[in-house]
Amino acid sequence: MKKLLFLLTFFSLFTFSQTKENKTDSITYFLELANYSFEEKYNSKDAIKYAQKAIEYSKAYKNQEKLYDCYYFLGSLYLETNNFNEAIVNFIKCSNYYEINQVRTSKVAKINYALGTLYLEKRNFKIAKLYFNKSYSIYDAINSNNTLVLIELQKGLTLKANNNLEEAILVFDNIANTSRDVEPSKIEALYQLSKIYYSQEEYDKALDFSKKALKLVENNTVGISKKKILNNLILISEKQEDYKLSNFYLKEFLTLNEIKNNSSLANTDLLINKKEHDNQLEIVEKLEKEKNDQLKSIRFNKLISIMSIVLIAILSLLSFSLYKNNKIRTVTNKLLQEKNEELTEQKEKAELASNARSEFLSTVSHELRTPLNAINGITHLLLQENPKSTQLNYLKSLEFSGNYLLSFINDILEINRLESNTIHIERINFNLEELIQNIRESFNGFIEQNNIDFRLELDLENHKNLLGDPTKLSQILINLINNSIKFTKNGKVTLSVKTINEENDTVTLNFIIQDNGIGIPEDKIANIFDSFSQGSVEINRTYGGTGLGLSIVKKIIELLGSEIHLESKVNEGTKLYFDLNFGKSNAEIILNHEKKKVTSYDNLKNKTVLLVEDNKINQMITKKMVENKGMVCTIIDNGEEAIVEMQNNTFDLVLMDVHLTGINGTEATAEIRKFDTTTPIIALTAISLNENKETLLSFGMNEVITKPFNPEYFYSVISDYVV
Fold first, then answer.
1. Which phi and psi angles does 386 have, rounded to 5°?
2. Alpha-carbon distance values, 660 to 363, 365, 551, 650, 682 (Å)
């Protein structure tokens, strides 16, 4: 199914590639590279890279039509590589865009069908049904008969699988009674109706629909098997105790198995007659042999009788022994059952405690983000208003404290994600040397502050370009390097990476992070990778930190299929090392060291924005931030009034808090999209473990900004959506 979906989307995407003669722009160029990589070289990773490049140029040229064609193609590639979450995000962007612009084509229907199928894979039947319905309405609008019936069949089968039998009956009944020439689909629908009524013990209806299916299948060479329908009719007839009818269908069923070639039958009869004639002597000889055997067996009858008596005596003794053993086993099983029940109860309690811990940490982390957004936001605003020199140090300290607390909250959420086993491991092209150099540069200030002699020792043997998860590797290295620098002042820190093995398309690298800092006491090493463990209270007071970094590192390395090792002595330093496997990449990674240009966001001036936020402090902060860029802000503190405001007025942008009193932000967005499909709506949320970007986008939101948000990122996102 996945391959079929991909081919459908792939061929419909590239119809635009020949629209300009003798002129190919950058977007088309990279899409053609992606097309070539996938079709000719079977290299989906390169195809993804070039599609992402095409997206960058589409954004740069503000070509919305090609941008969403690129998202469509990229989503199809992610579907091909089993990255369902990224496929969903890209398809939702396309679906929202085409819905806003009222585009109703077979390609848009396929996008919604793909989303329905993906959510069906994730067992999210509610959202799957939403997108199947969207696809249904589009196919209906463009009068696509055959494809529409297939979609209706898919919908009916989904409903049946979810035990929504009444809705499934309506769908199959509609297919069965359609006037369109789709006989195989009608046969399938009639058969499914018969099966549903059979399960509900309504055998008269089940028999009627099976008869109709049989009548159609006799006039068609394609569709459901005639044997399958006859078998169903036999079962129904037996349930009704109509054995005459059952016998009739049984004869038809057996007739299908009869040999049709009469000449073959005749030849077979001749062979049988010949064999019977030739075997007459063999039969006589066999009878004589049996007679002799019987005579021999008589001689053993007395012995057998004696042995039977002995065996009966032995069996009696065994039966008595088994009886006693069964009594003992019954008592033992009862004890074991009681113990198992106790263990099961303890296991359930442990699971409840673990879930309660995760929920508690998630809730606390989520709730802390709202006041933290106020702290960071007000600090940013005050720093922008040229504070007095005597106030500057206080504000810088407040900014540092807010960022430290945000880092702590993010670490807690990361631990919960890792323990929930929902982390996806990527496998993409990246340049290891560039990644390590970027990490090194990010620590420049910290290195100078602690007067560290930081050294890099790279022995990659021409394996700079790799296939793997650069984000997870960055998390590991940043945490380990940060610890080494923090606990080593006026000393040396070394990061060493070398190739230790190479087989076929796999290369194994050894990573070592070593310092000559304070070291770890021997009695603390065993627990150093536990959450919130820092060796001692004195270390926490002196050096700070959350005690979560090494725990996160250990869990990520285990997810990547390896393990981390530690060697340390007090006042001599610490050495941490591990091995990781990567795929070889022939892709040439283009290094891009260009810095982003500072923009003034002039396009935001005089634009109107509706802020839907129920927290007064967040209202003040967000309003001040948008007004600093010249925007005109209107504030609504609940979802109900926001819907009314959007019905009566026009805005260039809506900033929608997700967690509102009354109806929440997602419900308000869904209502607004019923009458306004064009105004950009950006979600503001202190996102928790139970929320994810793809779910928020499915309600009609264009983008998600996480609280507490970075000001520059905040301005960049809203600037992209304000025309």
1. 50, 70
2. 16, 18, 35, 22, 15
C-alpha radius of gyration, the chain, whole number: 36
Read off the DSSP letter of residue 583: E
Angle at 295 between CA 292 and CA 297, to 5 degrees: 110
All residues at 6 or more sequence positions from 185 whose CB lies less than 8 Å from its CB, including other chains = 149, 150, 152, 153, 175
Q: CATH assignment of 1-143, given 3.40.640.10, 3.30.420.40, 1.25.40.10, 1.10.3210.10? A: 1.25.40.10
Helix (H) or strand (E) holding 215: helix 203-217
**Region of residue 490 (left: phi > 0; alpha: psi -120 to 50; beta: else):** left
The predicted structure's pLDDT at residue 481: 92
**687/416 Cα distance (integer angstroms):** 14
Does CATH place domain 602-721 in 3.40.50.2300?
A: yes
Token output for 221:
């060479």
DSSP codes of every residue in 364-382:
HHHHHHHHHHHHHHHHHHH
Q: Cβ neighbours of residue 92 under 8 Å, at least 6 residues apart?
A: 115, 694, 697, 698
Residue 3 has, within 13 A of its CA and on its CB side, a CA count of 1
Mean pLDDT for the chain?
A: 78
pTM for the full predicted model: 0.41
Return the closest-CA partner of residue 486 out of 435, 545, 436.
545
pLDDT of residue 589: 52
Fold classification of 428-584 is Heat Shock Protein 90 (3.30.565)
Instruction: Output the pLDDT for position 2.
Output: 45
The DSSP symbol for 388 reads -
Task: Tell me the mean pLDDT in the region 332-352.
Answer: 80
Structure tokens at 131: 């997108």
- The set of residues, in sequence order, having a beta carbon less than 8 Å from that of 576 and lying 6+ positions away, is 480, 512, 513, 514, 564, 565, 566
Per-residue DSSP letter, 142: T
Closest residue by Cα to residue 87 from 101, 100, 99, 73? 73
Q: What would the CATH number be for the domain defined by 149-259?
A: 1.25.40.10
3-state secondary structure of 678: coil
Beta-carbon contacts of residue 227 (< 8 Å; ≥ 6 apart): 253, 256
Label residue 612 by pLDDT band (50, 70, 90). very high
**344 SS3 class:** helix
Instruction: Write out pLDDT tens, residues 661-717.
Output: 889 999 999 999 999 999 999 998 876 544 567 788 889 999 998 888 778 889 999
- Asked whether the beta carbons of 653 and 721 are under 8 A apart, the reply is yes
Q: How far is CA 644 from the centre of its chain?
A: 36
Residue 83 has pLDDT above 80, yes or no: yes
pLDDT at 679: 95
* Whole-number Å distance between alpha carbons of 347 and 12: 53
CA separation (Å) from 215 to 50, 177, 190, 202, 230? Answer: 54, 15, 11, 21, 11
pLDDT (tens digit per residue) in 219-253: 654 445 677 788 888 889 888 888 888 888 888 87
- Does residue 708 have a cis peptide bond before it, meaning omega lies within 30 degrees of 0? yes
Mean pLDDT across 319-325: 82
Q: In what order do the strands lie in the sheet with 632-636?
A: 632-636, 608-612, 653-657, 681-685, 703-706
3-state DSSP call for residue 576?
strand
pLDDT reported for residue 418: 64
**35/452 Cα distance (integer angstroms):** 48
